[in-house]
Write the structure tokens for this entry.
Amino acid sequence: MRTYPLNDAGVKMRVVGLLALVAGIACGDSDTVIINGADTTGTDPAGGSDTGISEGAGNGASSGHLIVVTERESPEANLQYLHVLDAWPESGQVDYGGAIELGEFVSSHVMGDAIFVHQPDDATVRKLVVGRDGAITLDETISFAAYGAAGSAGDMVYVSEELAYFIDEGSAQVVVWNPRTLLVSGASPIAEEALVRGLLPAQISRGIGLGGQGFVAASWRDWESLEYHDAAAMGVFDATMQPELRIIEDSRCASTVTTPYDGGDGFVYLISDAALGFDALANPNRTQKALCVLRMRPGANEFDPEFFVDLGETLGSPGFYAAHPMEGGKLLVNTWAPGVDLAGIADPQDPDWYWNYPPYFEYAVVDLATGASIPVPELGRTAVQWSITLRVGGGTYVQTYREDQGSDLSRVEPDGSVVRVLSNPPGTDVQYLGQVSK
């Protein structure tokens, strides 16, 4: 489930909660538990103008159409819309005249020439195929309701155009299905020992596929009692019709709900975020573990013992809210602002200050190979508002919120420079970026 608390400005914050199964150099042990059971590529539009909005000219997505999913909030509903574009609009705003309504709180994913839209409430996935002219040529839906998998507990892992997994801790099963044919192949149970640690329920992040395997972040916590299992863990499974999920842990590192990512070098990377920074900065039972970046090669049984990055040490920071992968082995990290005394801000009697306080986070680009970091002052300070990674064509995009409750979408380059591509009106932001093939 994803919760949507509001900060003092009324801006919606993306906080991952109640979800489930799913780098300095140092050596250490990893624990493995056997459990039975689970990027969009293209040409990045580029350019810029003295207005702060990147120009549409020269920004065409030559290898495919640019996919933008926005959300518009109103007192009645928070509806998401699909936009199929040839380039970033020169005006900096998307047109809703030809947009397709997708529903509330959906999760989108692009693969090949199709957009897949997971609607958790009724356990369906809608497939929209985009033609060469940008028009929708096919609109079909698959339902998982017959498997008892309804509600917001489950997440999708898309491994290939013919193989995907619906991992649902609510119904304690992994449903295998074919994105090309929209047919279900079967379901496998998730073992009880994977669903809980002690009395703590498991949480699933959306995952990725690489090298014939699926990878998800796994954690166990109770957001009511604020108890948590204090270790970084990743669920790994072979992409078969009867997947067997292995949980691989590293007890040196804090827990995480951040989706693993493909580093483009043959490794899957896992970012230990201390549950979006809360356990490091505000939880009454603060973690003392490192905020790590780990990696693992598909087919391995442990994290790479020759790779370990402590982001807290690298940044000189007590914690960070979110970290987003970038090109060139770098991360864009939304870290606690240097020079701000955490002890003077934190309220030990009310840990909810973390979700409601004014902005005390700043962005920095971290080079995982060298440990160097570059501040990104152009983005300004932020509150805990945005944890979703937005990438398309190798570019990493960040959303910031204005005082009028509108939002700006900017591409952050590996050198720390910023190019704004969208300026959304009040109550509107971007939920997903992708690119379909032509």
